[in-house]
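Worked example

This section walks through a single chain of length 505. The input is the sequence exactly as stored; nothing has been trimmed or padded.
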Amino acid sequence: MKTSMACTLLAAALVCVTPLDSLAQVRQSGNVTPGHIATWTTTGVIQDGGGAVPSVVIPTVANDGACFSNTTGTLVDCGGPPVLNSNPVLTGRWTWTTTPTYNLAANLLGTAIFLPLNATTQTIPAGDEFDYIRGTNLDGTDVVWTLGNGSTISGTYFSITSGAGSNANSNIYSGVFHSHVLGPNNGRALHLGAYGCLTPPCTNLSTGGTGVVSGAGVDLQPTTGLSAAYGVFVSLNSSGVNGIGVGYDIESGGDTYNIGFGSIVNPVSYVNAAYRAWMGSGSATNARAFQVLNNAGTELAYWLKDGNILAPTLTLSQNAATPTLPPPNLASLWLINLDGSGATAFVDAYTNQAGGTGSTVISPLIIFRAANGTLASPSQLGATSVIGVFGARTYTSSSTFTSANVARIAFQTFNAQTNTDNSSLITLETTPSGSTTRAVAMTIQPSGGVSVGAAAADPGIGAINATNGYKSGGSAGVSTTCTVTAGNTLVFTGGILTSKGANCT
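Given that input, the structure is written out below as tokens.
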């Protein structure tokens, strides 16, 4: 039968007591001379050990470990921190009651538990893992804890408080973790993982936990005297290496996230902004405040540091329904109304000028710009090129919108555009009844004249040319003669002049 023994060092004598309820009654074999050691003869029987109890002297141990000397049989100063070898089994609670000393290396560091290794460099064999402190079973498996109502288990718990008299330049950290990477390996100062199963990666996703897991939980409680309070604070040490650091990164093996940044639990109230990109003057020329990439990593849309937004389609909607988007090669601005209401675009401008004309007057503007070539290398716009269009499309009996405008106002070039020739024209186009083909109804020509009909020629400034004649009140125009005195105005009531008489000047 195996038993446990409790030993106590009393008055320079080591007294060991075996629990009596685990053995038979202890008997003495022969006399034991006072002052001699008592030893076991057999189980339950003691006898005289044949010698006196050795004197055990407790030396002065200067901030080091106390070691047993095989030479003198006494406790001596180890000359350094205590060394624990051969997998010592430590039970109960460890308590340190002395004042820390700050003599670790040359950095004036103090530590309650110091776990040095036997060399300044170590090698970990392939596939192995080394942990300074580990809280698992001896075989590396997790201990499974059953938690009661309101209970909590923590692998490590540190709660540190700085007093009101602390210096303003001091710091308090509940934990400090550094990872220095000198080779091609990866480094993480702190690795946090939360899993819904016992051994990740989880293979049976239908079993496991039913609560909530968080890779990191950050609890924040500001008070009025604080100058700032951060849930997560990332400080980028200036070293001259730019374009590598990532303040916040989300990765996935293919699964989808519910949300990348924000709250899915409840609404959060803000004072200034839910998201702020405060971009410094040292940012790159094309630095983005926000960027959207597709699955292949191709940029789809972005928000530049100067506030400009570049996107193939910008949709401003009050409607909860998702509209059918235009083709991806069209740059579009969509304004969508609530069902049963109108969609309106307002362009406002505010100025202190009393009035005037020309480019110096500030006014609401909608401007079309067109060029050949590319954004990086634009080129001259040729003759009869469309500069911009106001168009209209309708929803048809085919349950779709028309693919082309049923009516439009188009701005076009007349000649190829040069520094000395910016000739242009405007066409008004409509779709006749019973047709789906749009045609030119009227053209404001480069001269300023107006041509009515698709084939009407430019009549020159101040004139109108109609291919099929003029009508007023449903009647065709008639020829007439007239004399107009200089300074007066010729007015036709109920008709239009179609042929000028000899005296009509």
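What to look for: Residues 1-23 have pLDDT under 50 and may be disordered.
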